[in-house]
């Protein structure tokens, strides 16, 4: 590709970061020639030439001058429309919209094939950490066993403040919002959906299979209570919001997003504040660990820049693993060990445990630790959303390998 002429959609946190890094990156041979936003009059931190702005999608898509669309808007439906229309016109796209991608990847993968047009999105999963391209290119074999990590900076920041600085949860959340780590509606981060959407995208590149978000058990940190934190401290563990995809046999893999009791010997134990960390486990190489900033203006923009520069060499994902003849299938028919804290909710009437390992009835709250099918948790998900209930995974996979 000769000079990259970018039509940029979105000039918010990420969009302005992209404007800065593209200007700095002399070797990128790239230039932003148009910027589409909702409100061109809005005051912004970065001052760009007013003539660059438009509110018309067509002005970018119809321009013969533009040979790459970079989409970083905060409206998933509009993002889907823009990305699809660009691809149908044969214009390659770089996108950061995890919600849109997690919902529409199968169709967008098909479009890439039929229209011979690239769609790159490393920034959508873990900001500056190059997870997607690594999984796509380097881990292209059958040895991959697990991809697991802290994929959401806001919830991790809150949990760090609560654990390391003994701050009340509400104060930590308010601080995360003030620092711009959490959205004004923080439920996307703290209920686990941000991690879920990233996990869906990661799994496509890790194991070659798309699993729709609604088929995946997702539980966040919004109901965490002082008693959970006390319990974790007594046991010498931290509670982290962890997303994981795990090969449980040659035939099957499973995936879920849940708070987890993390012991100090795990890499993610020391991933604190707004940082992200991803562990990749393989048959022959044990564990590898990637750590870095998972969000924020410039970190995310750096990953977008890397995708922009990859287009200089016509790079595109090949989705080789999707065509493998023997691929493990998704299952929720696996047993997990979980901690469930409750008070009013009649947990024993709701959840069927295969085995109860520990129980405690207290003044303030009760808890039970037991073995339970992931499918049982999925089936009962809506009944586990009471303010008095909190659930955490106690890891059981690969324990024999980690000692
Ligand atoms: N923030 C992060 O750290 C981060 C990290 C990784 C991925 N992402 C993803 O990147 C995307 C952007 O995030 P952000 O934090 O930059 O959001 P943001 O600060 O809220 O900015 C969103 C931008 O999108 C524009 N916009 C919204 N709807 C539009 C439409 N229909 N047409 C044209 N422009 C439209 C807005 O225009 P106005 O300015 O005129 O309102 C604004 O400039 C999201 O998908 C997010 O999930 C963000």
TrEMBL record:
Catalysed reaction, written as an equation: L-homoserine + NADP(+) = L-aspartate 4-semialdehyde + NADPH + H(+)
EC identifiers of the protein: 1.1.1.3
Domain Homoserine dehydrogenase catalytic residue range list: 130-309
Family: Belongs to the homoserine dehydrogenase family.
Keyword Amino-acid biosynthesis assigned: yes
Pathway field: Amino-acid biosynthesis; L-threonine biosynthesis; L-threonine from L-aspartate: step 3/5; Amino-acid biosynthesis; L-methionine biosynthesis via de novo pathway; L-homoserine from L-aspartate: step 3/3
Xref: SUPFAM superfamilies: Glyceraldehyde-3-phosphate dehydrogenase-like, C-terminal domain, NAD(P)-binding Rossmann-fold domains
InterPro entries per record: Asp/hSer_DH_NAD-bd, HDH_cat, HDH_CS, NAD(P)-bd_dom_sf
Residues in Aspartate/homoserine dehydrogenase NAD-binding domain copies: 10-121
GO MF terms held by the record: homoserine dehydrogenase activity; NADP binding
Residue ranges crossing the lipid bilayer per the database entry: none
Annotated protein name in UniProt: Homoserine dehydrogenase
Top-level taxon in the UniProt lineage: Bacteria
Gene3D superfamilies: 3.30.70.260, Dihydrodipicolinate Reductase, domain 2, NAD(P)-binding Rossmann-like Domain
Keyword tags: Amino-acid biosynthesis, Methionine biosynthesis, NADP, Oxidoreductase, Threonine biosynthesis
Keyword check for Ribosomal protein: no
One Gene Ontology term from the biological process aspect of the record: methionine biosynthetic process
Enzyme class per UniProt: oxidoreductase
